[in-house]
Design a protein that fits this description.
The chain has helices spanning 2-13, 19-51. It is mainly alpha-helical.
Amino acid sequence: MMAALAKAISRATRTNVDVETLKVLVIFSGAGLLLSLVAAMIYGQAVSAALF
């Protein structure tokens, strides 16, 4: 699946995209999304506690 995605990105951007580079980008994007969700959950609880 990663190889197919790398080929599609390579065709669309006309640059050489390596599968390993794509894996690293997916891992960091996933980690950033996870941290953002955790921060939003913590901040959301703090706001609701301050309002009530």
